[in-house]
Amino acid sequence: xxxxxxxxxKMVDGQVRTYDVTxxxxxxxxxxxxxxxxxxxxxxSLAYLDLDLDVSDGGSLKRYLIKPAVTAKLLQAADIGESDxxxxxxxxxxYVAALAARLAAQVTATEGVSALxxxxxxxxxxxxxxxxxVKAAAAADGDLPNRPYDVIxxxxxxxxxxxxxxxxxxxxxRLVGVFALAKPARASLVTHCHDDFGNRALFDAAAPVxxxxxxxxxxxx
Length: 221
What we know:
two-stranded antiparallel sheet
């Protein structure tokens, strides 16, 4: 077993399974997708650590792959089906999109930093992932032209209720992400049912905030 393959196995055994992730499809996806491929070369030794990994590679706007265990638990909560159409918001270099691609029929991934969107396309192409389309778009915008989606996954946290994304869900659709509207931040599941949106907290979690989904500072007299 190669060094990265061994690290991937240890990540799954030591971080993912111990975080109460039991869905065999997600575990298989995390064992199969090489996380190191989505990380700048100088940081590949950090690819399987339990941290939010900066993949900006010198860019002024910081972008991250969120912790493996949080990623896995969010995907489990999303309950992605084999025929589902999935939107990944803030995909960075495309790791979460690659995982979702092994669970769903089709994935659209958006990224607000155009250079990272191009890098995601390159990496996914090198890995032969054929059912992902990557678009340069702001996190709050989602992908209006191709809505509605069965599942929306936020690769990061939001400090505001992303209602524009809610409206891109199909009836019965699900959105998962880390909601930092208050403290402590919590991973949450939003569901669309009969023109209403329910929001259920799942577990305490922290993740870097997606650009464009920050809290607007209040004006103080």
